TrEMBL record, chains A, B:
Source superkingdom: Bacteria
Keyword Transferase (UniProt): yes
Biological processes per GO annotation: amino acid metabolic process
Protein name, UniProt field: Aminotransferase
Keyword Iron-sulfur attributed: no
Record SUPFAM superfamilies: PLP-dependent transferases
Keywords: Aminotransferase, Pyridoxal phosphate, Transferase
Length: 396, 396
């Protein structure tokens, strides 16, 4: 029996590729500093657990397919505060940002269609796109330019009659780069002129370190029919395991199509939506504190990288990732060596090789994503280990 | 901007079509007996809520993509007790049976492929199939034959070079019919001979009223590579809102493909998996009590139907549904009339018109699905209202 050509085009997560080598290293007594995972270590606000504990019902029934009212109210309230109110029906509760994205792609993409995505990009986009039968056409960027891509001359030549949408992550994963309002307008204008959807994954919106609040693609009125926003409580409230997200658009036609899928899968988990609704009641001081913490770590990780001769990296403005070009031949080989051969005082470090974030073969081979989700002092040591590792690796 | 041809082939849930008419009726003070929804009214075991309340962690992190260990252990344990142990890796935790099914179809079906499904079938299968680009080829059944379909002469002529799988629901939704072991063997044999997958949706397994435990498609050793089982805690433990299910197969190649999708969507909700694991600790007395309750209702609903002249229905052996041919011209028209024109002592009844369960145009127009998820006395009254309604409708 054969499998679908779509699933055969997909790959197992490259982020998990080194797990067995890490396990072996730990078995040898080596302590590993994980800079490879995007799992925040910030505590989940008690509001989530309290709401879940206080929820009581004799029968845990299906939630409405479009979402639990309290959760929808909370998301609508959040966007009102953001200055971007969305009409009822413009928000659908989803099983994390992941489901919101896959629903959006299913509604838009046919076999053979093309989806523009700046590379490097979040690796799982490749799977969600492949399952629709569409192709990802990467918008090229470079570490030297800080992975910026929002330029007409870079994007327009890639658009053809099969192009349906531009998928962006802003703030960026893995790059950490944040689009300026002017750059966002370029994307919005191109989308309107060429009749494309802009799918804007803004799950890291609250994590920007430039001082001012980040703009949302929802802000461009002329592009209201083009813009689809992917949102989630996972990173915003450090609640990845809740699997509660949202699909947001002012294109009522698109939302009507999306509702078909939401009804077919019945609903997102009832209890988690109740907890997620409560998360939105935390005050601005929560975001301020978390932002400050991540900004300190960003500065620490960036300073640590800059101390390594030959590293190419522009200081990122958002999310909790850095993408850097390292002074080594191949990050895959380097990571394996770091786990099998290297250790300093019984410690080593893990990062994510860059190649997996690119659709273009051969790109990113000497790049790496660093997730700065460790406390200050451990992060300092992790960056020191990376520096020592690179030096030893190149001398071997 | 256009939408994908796949999503345009999908429809909004026909089960929800009459919601606005029902709301209007309620606004006029009419009480409605709902026989239209598959939402059990049996209490969710406290084990779920206790486990959730006792769960404590500073950071609600991602669960493993294949599932929370306690939940996987619970499902493995359940299948061992069933006499069908499955190796590690043969069970993947999913967001309800819905996600398990859509993952299975994504792994198997390409654009233009064909999926055999006995009709009438669970309406959402159509959406999940359409999103893969494949076509459903219905296996015809009739109310007169009790919707039985597991016969070579009925199935084999429908198989061609594009046929990839047979999707069955056993016990059946909407029919309530349960395959005999001999019938299941026919399906297994055909699948093995023709190199097809058998996707067996067995979420109603515990609800059979023939006395003996239902067989699972997992029992046929020669078909181990062909069989994929869809499972869920939703109906089994009256926990539909937990959205926790499982994809189960001994075909390790298929499970490896499925894991790609599980990794891409990161994980199913952590807390709900913890609760679901606890649900599996309830004893056999729980199932016995629930089974007895549903059997009483099945008998009540069936007896009520049999009192209506001209109704065609074989007594169903499982799940909590009846599918019947009614002595009326069109169930859609009838349902709307029941909500807009009819009432007896300020009460009326809702059922689900049959047409939506068929892929073949025009089939099921005078059929209806009745979900017997009401307590005994209310169910009695609901069936009485149905009888009175049919009589008045045909006299109008």
């Amino acid at each position: 029996m054969k499998f679908s050509s779509k699933i055969l085009k997909c790959e197992l997560s490259p982020i998990r590729k080194f797990a067995p080598y890490a396990a072996a290293a730990r078995a040898r007594g080596i302590a590993i500093y994980p800079l490879n995972i995007g799992q925040p270590d910030i505590a989940t606000p008690n509001e989530y657990f309290d709401a879940v504990k206080n929820f009581s019902t004799p029968v845990l029934g299906y939630a409405p397919s479009d979402g639990v009212p309290e959760y929808l109210d909370a998301v609508h309230g959040y966007y009102e505060k953001l200055g971007q109110p969305v009409d009822r029906g413009g928000v659908l509760a989803t099983e994390g940002g992941s489901e919101a994205l896959s629903i959006a792609l299913e509604c838009i993409l046919d076999e053979g269609d093309e989806l523009l995505v700046p590379e490097p990009f979040y690796t799982n986009y490749a799977t969600f796109a492949a399952l629709t039968g569409a192709e990802i056409r990467p918008i090229p960027t470079t570490p030297e330019e800080g992975f910026r891509y929002a330029e007409r001359e870079r994007i327009e030549p890639l658009i053809n009659e099969r192009t349906r949408a531009i998928l962006i992550t802003n703030p960026g994963n893995p790059t950490g780069s944040v689009l300026t309002r002017a750059e966002m307008r370029v994307i919005a204008d191109i989308a309107v002129e060429r009749g494309l959807f802009v799918i804007s994954d803004e799950v890291y919106r609250e994590f920007t370190y430039g001082g001012e609040a980040m703009a949302s693609m929802l802000e461009f009125e002329h592009a209201h029919d083009n813009v689809v926003v992917i949102d989630s409580v996972s990173k915003r409230f450090s609640a990845c395991g809740a699997r509660v997200g949202a699909l947001i658009s002012r294109n009522s036609g698109l939302m009507k199509q999306a509702l078909k899928i939401c009804q077919a899968r019945l609903c997102a988990a009832t209890l988690d939506q109740v907890g997620a609704a409560a998360l939105y009641s935390v005050g601005p001081e929560y975001f301020a504190a978390v932002r400050e913490e991540y900004q300190r770590r960003r500065d620490t990780a960036y300073a640590g990288l800059m101390r390594i001769p030959g590293v190419v990296c522009r200081r990122p403005e958002g999310a909790f990732y850095l993408m850097a070009k390292l002074p080594i031949d191949n990050t895959d080989t380097f990571q394996q060596w770091m786990l099998e051969e290297f250790s300093d005082r019984g410690e080593t470090v893990m990062l994510t090789p860059g190649e997996g974030f690119y659709a273009t073969p051969g790109k990113g081979v000497n790049e790496a994503r660093i997730a700065y989700v460790l406390e200050q002092d451990r992060l300092e040591r992790a960056m020191e280990l990376l520096a020592l590792g690179i030096e030893a690796y190149n001398k071997r």
